[in-house]
Amino acid sequence: FLNGRVCYVFLLLFAFCAFTASCRRSAEPLYFSGRTMGTVYHITAIPETTLDDGQLTREIQETLESMNAGMSMFDRNSELSRFNSLSKNETMCVSAPFMDVFRVSSDLYRITGGAWDGTVGPLVNLWGFGSSGKGRGIPDTAAIEKARSNVGFHQIRVSDGHCLSKMENGLVLDFGSIAKGYAVDEIANLLKRRGVQHYLVEIGGEVRAGGTNRGRPWKVGISLPVPGVAADRILGSLELRDRAVATSGDYRNFRVIGGKTYSHEIDPRTGWPVRNKVASVTVISDTAVFADGLATGLMVMGEEKGIDLVNSLPGVSCLFVIREKGRQKTDSEFRTVTSRGFPPLAR
């Protein structure tokens, strides 16, 4: 992090700064970074008043640790893992953050017609993209249908407002395509509670921007959706202010079986990886959690139905990047389609 400067304004203020972790002049950016949720995070905050960045560092870490404790698939003691270990019709009352994510998940499942489904895990594992690491070839029809019987967000019951139970033993929740967005929102809310109105929060590519970057909009790049391409190769950049953006794509996680490429984006309704030529989808909305999940759902829905859906959602816009000729290595092989309200990209 940046080293602070002591503010010599009043003797009283000097005394206060001497006993805090740091004291900064107005508008001096603070930078935070690290690892969380299996990825990396970067946070820029521009406070309008002096701020104890040591305390803020601890609060950011505590928030991220809380997210992992609630929604990690890899921690056997997490809230999510404990729910997944329940037997059919057992009930578990969950925390407020967990219920928040569940409600957003339920909305996404409904508006996408099941294209986004937080219980798709059995199919993801079957195709070799999940935490189990299983799956070498194309699964047979019987295996796909068996896995599909344990998929369906509608098979989770809600009682007493914050208690959940499942209707099938094999059903599991996976918030992997939405939890990072929720964590971004929680960090943004933390910053605002600490009086920071100008910030940029990014976790694993999911972003939320507040206010401005010293009077100018924050700029966020959209990756060029080509396998193996350098991180600094971008399709273009967006200008953001008080908005969130998330991108989902098929160009980093895929398998080649029998000479054919299979995306990690599985359609929960069919049990098969999607093959609709959508290379990536970028969504802009008020919250990162909604943008994060919706981008995944739109990858499955495809261009036409996806654009129709987004055009019906107030305050939401999207960009589809369509692959014209297989997995090409140049941006000339792509075309872009946007919904209403999506801002122009800067090059």
Neighbour order of strands in the largest sheet? 1-2-6-7-10-13-14-15
**How would a textbook summarize the main sheet?**
8 strands, antiparallel
What's the order of the H and E elements? HEEHHEHHHEEHEEEEEEEEHHEE
- For the secondary structure, the number of strands is 15
Helix tally equals 9
Mean pLDDT: 87
What class do helices, strands and sheet pairing give? alpha+beta
Radius of gyration: 22 Å
Give me some keywords for this one.
9 helices, 347 residues, single chain, eight-stranded antiparallel β-sheet, disordered N terminus, alpha+beta
Characterise this structure.
By secondary structure, this protein is α+β, with helices and mostly antiparallel strands. The protein is 29% helix and 24% strand. The protein has 9 helices and 15 strands. It has an 8-stranded antiparallel sheet with strand order 1-2-6-7-10-13-14-15. Helix 2 runs antiparallel to helix 7 (179-193), helix 4 packs parallel to helix 8 and helix 8 packs antiparallel against helix 9 (303-311). The longest helix has 19 residues, at 53-71. 40% of the residues are buried. Mean pLDDT is 87; it is low at 1-26.
In terms of topology, how is this protein built?
Blueprint: H1 11-18, E1 30-36, E2 39-46, H2 53-71, H3 79-84, E3 91-93, H4 96-111, H5 121-126, H6 141-148, E4 156-159, E5 163-166, H7 179-193, E6 198-203, E7 206-210, E8 218-223, E9 234-240, E10 243-249, E11 254-257, E12 260-263, E13 278-285, H8 288-301, H9 303-311, E14 317-323, E15 334-338
Antiparallel strand pairs: 1-2, 2-6, 3-5, 4-5, 6-7, 7-10, 8-9, 10-13, 11-12, 13-14, 14-15
Helix pairs in contact: 2-7, 4-8, 7-8, 8-9
